[in-house]
UniProtKB/TrEMBL annotation:
The lineage of its organism: Eukaryota, Fungi, Dikarya, Ascomycota, Pezizomycotina. Pfam families: Peptidase_S8. CDD domains: Peptidases_S8_S53. This is Peptidase S8/S53 domain-containing protein. InterPro entries: Peptidase_S8/S53_dom (IPR000209), Peptidase_S8/S53_dom_sf (IPR036852), Peptidase_S8_subtilisin-like (IPR050131). It comes from Trichoderma guizhouense.
């Protein structure tokens, strides 16, 4: 007998022995346990047909039936089609997850906690999803969320599977799985792929088994040994072989089912991409979605598409609550090649508002030199345009509220906590690196050199990313905007180092307009994020005190996503146009899901009149405010206002958090360092050190509420930070410094 046939026979005999050795009392006890959603070979014995079918098949196989095709004998029939997947599935006493039970359980849990009202329609409208489902080419789509979007992704995954099952064979494992799955095994990446392989066997067309039973048994004989070896290659081969019978299929996986072993899934995007390529050669269209509540800390090839999901916008209807006529316009189109177009509001039809230019806001020197009235009138005329691509500085006469008290608290509490205990010669920890994408930094004029000299040893690089400019241009800043932005960071963080990136271009018509050049921004982000051994700077933070009305540049979008995957925190200013701004009141990139959005407030936490809408649908979970009025810089006697400078202060606060984690006692904790690279961790830290004032619930940053409580030892502050991280990433975080109870 062929070795693969013998392997199948031996496996059937083994399973029969297990079933026969199972006493009646054990079967009753097994039935009482009711492992809902989980099936093993012993539970299968509760169905008497399974044992009977195995005996019948064994009787057929031990004869000469497998030679029937060669000897022109009548073909051998599988007496039960389910055996085709059950025999491999229960190799090695393995268990099988009933994915439909898990999906129904997830629905019930959502109903119980009112998650059925969670908003998901905006996810359905994403062009990445449209392309994945209906685009001409099969692909892998990585959907990345965070702690604020976990329930949205959980609900969306159920909706998606329901939708896909109406289009074609769909294989899936969603969160949460039944707890009994974790009681019976410790799920690793290979365990999940095994479950996928079993599901792929279950969806093999019955016509193949019924019309070509002998070939089906040969297929079963070849497949069974792979389920006994339990390796990644075995599961990939089994999935490949089973799906080759399909014209089209979908796989949807939620990485969170791996729990603490979620890193096992980091190789999945490439594994599935290669699988898609192999199946395409056999005319099988496979589309794979991998969902995760955190970013994957691994290299993703160009062929792996990424879609980020943040918190839901406010006060919008649920897609399943819409009438059928309206739902059709929200759900994805059925065509193979959907036409993707931007959603435009009627108010956006004015072509003037779509220009990617902006009028330069009046500089402090203009206002100081007596031109306030003329410039203020000009400002009123271009208020709408100034947000379309502007560096977000506002007229200093329009807002009030000194930040003096805020900075006094920062100095006496936070700075004292972070820096006072260190020797002035202690440079053992790695300084935080911040890339400042702006108009430059003034250091060519004598008065600038003199006034900014105390900061210059912390400027590590000047670089211009504007086409046809030399790096020397980054040392010029006629507007003063970039200089004032950089100074705010240097005042907040006393050890961070800056990389000055000039990304502003002048208007071609000779006016004083400045443009944040999108190609320059793309190049600057890539350079800042790349590791030094690859010619980059390896920064920790990127500050972008500018914005555009529309997310219409693939290069910038992809660069931002790449930076986020590398663990770089990005901050961007929201707007200075209040409710009079462009169609999208929160500018891009501050509304990108990978970026933390910053509004301007006065020194006491009151939002300014130029602040964008508090009920904006963008960035609610990652939107904070910081002092953005009457700020100073030593190179000028002017006062600076706007979200640009608030953004710089927020970036400086982020640097303070990273600095503290790189000092004793946390500097030895790799789990703390790695966790703080996650956006959800930084958002959690900022939320922990912010307060809300008034009904608009703007989160105003007060860093001393976490870093620098009076009389609190560093160890207590460190433990508070670790405790916050553990809420997000589990109890293992910080265990190198603060062991869990029972650990040595």
């Amino acid at each position: 007998m062929d070795p693969s046939h013998q392997c199948l026979v031996d496996e059937i005999k083994r399973q029969i022995r297990i079933l026969e050795s199972d006493t009646r009392e054990n079967r009753r006890a097994q039935q009482k346990k009711k492992y809902l959603g989980i099936i093993d070979a012993k539970q299968q014995n509760s169905d008497q047909r399974y044992r009977t079918d195995l005996l019948t098949l064994l009787s057929n196989l031990t004869g000469d039936c497998l030679q029937s095709k060669a000897e022109n004998k009548p073909p051998l029939h599988l007496n039960n089609l389910s055996l085709f997947w059950q025999i491999p599935a229960f190799c090695g006493d393995a268990i099988v997850v009933d994915q439909n039970y898990a999906k129904d359980r997830s629905k019930a849990l959502q109903d119980h906690r009112a998650a059925k009202h969670t908003y998901t329609a905006d996810i359905w409208g994403r062009r990445e999803l449209t392309q994945w489902i209906s685009g001409p080419e099969p692909s892998v789509l990585l959907v990345q969320g965070n702690s604020q979007s976990a329930e949205r992704l959980e609900k969306f995954s159920v909706e998606l599977v329901d939708y896909l099952e109406g289009k074609g064979p769909t294989v899936f494992l969603l969160s949460p799985l039944p707890e009994t799955f974790y009681e019976n095994s410790i799920p690793r990446g290979d365990d999940i792929l095994r479950q996928i392989a079993v599901q792929c066997l279950r969806i093999i067309p019955s016509s193949f088994i019924e019309k070509t039973p002998t070939e089906a048994l040969w297929f079963l004989s070849r497949t069974t040994p792979y389920f006994q070896t339990a390796s990644l290659d075995s599961w990939v081969f089994s999935i490949d072989a089973a799906l080759s019978f399909q014209e089209q299929a979908y796989i949807v996986l939620d990485i969170s089912i791996l729990r603490q072993h979620y890193r096992d899934a980091f190789a999945w995007p490439d594994v599935f991409f290669n699988l898609i390529h192999d199946l395409l050669n056999r005319r099988t269209d496979l589309r794979v979605m991998i969902m995760t509540g955190r970013s994957i800390d691994a290299y993703l090839g160009e062929n792996i598409h990424v879609m980020s999901v943040d918190m839901a916008p406010r006060s919008l209807p649920n897609v399943y609550d819409l009438p059928e006529s309206e739902k059709a316009s929200v759900l994805l189109p059925q065509s193979k090649k959907p036409q993707v177009s931007a959603s435009l509001q009627p108010s956006m039809n004015n072509t003037e508002t779509t220009k990617e230019t902006f009028a330069q806001n009046p500089t402090p020197s203009d206002l100081r030199n007596g031109n306030r009235n003329d410039e203020y009138q000009k400002l009123l005329k271009v208020t709408h345009r100034s947000g379309l691509g502007s560096f977000q500085a506002a007229d200093s006469g329009m807002t009030e509220g000194s930040p003096i008290s805020w900075f006094k608290n920062l100095t006496s509490k936070t700075h004292a906590a972070i820096y006072a205990s260190r020797s002035a010669k202690d440079n053992s920890f790695k300084p935080v690196k911040i890339a400042v994408l702006d108009t430059g930094f003034a250091y060519t004029e004598e008065h600038d050199k003199k006034s900014l000299k105390p900061y210059m040893h912390r400027i590590k690089k000047f670089a211009s990313f504007v086409e046809d400019e030399t790096d020397l241009e980054a040392m010029k800043d006629p507007s003063g905007h970039g200089t004032a932005v950089a100074v705010q960071m240097l005042k907040v963080s006393l050890s961070a180092v800056l990389y000055i990136c000039r990304v502003a271009t002048s208007s071609k018509d000779g006016s004083r307009e400045l443009f944040p050049d999108k190609e320059a921004v793309e190049r600057a982000i890539k350079k800042a994020v790349a590791e030094p051994e690859k010619g980059g700077w390896g920064v920790d933070i990127i500050n972008m005190s500018f914005g555009w009305a529309f997310d219409d540049h693939d290069g910038v979008r992809n660069a931002i996503r790449f930076a986020r995957r590398q663990g770089v925190h990005m901050f961007a200013s929201t707007s200075n146009d209040g409710l009079l701004g462009p169609p999208n009141d929160i500018l891009y990139p501050s509304r990108a899901p990978e970026v933390i959005a910053i509004d301007a407030a006065d020194g006491f936490g009151e939002y300014t009149r130029t602040t964008a809408s508090s009920v904006s649908s963008y960035g609610r979970g990652r939107r904070f405010s910081a002092p953005g009025t009457r700020l100073t810089s030593p190179h000028s006697a002017a006062l600076y206002d706007g979200s640009s400078f608030a953004c710089a202060i927020a970036a400086g606060i982020c640097a303070l958090i990273l600095e503290f984690a790189r000092q004793p006692p946390l500097q030895v904790s790799k789990t703390v360092q790695n966790s703080l690279k996650e956006m959800s961790a930084m958002v959690a830290m900022l939320e922990r050190m912010s307060a809300e004032k008034g009904p608009d619930r703007f989160k105003f940053l007060l860093p001393w509420t976490l870093l620098g409580k009076p009389g609190q030892p560093r160890e207590f502050t460190a433990y508070s930070l670790v405790d916050e991280l553990r809420n997000e990433f589990g109890l293992a975080v910080g265990s190198e410094v603060f062991p869990l109870e029972g650990e040595s």
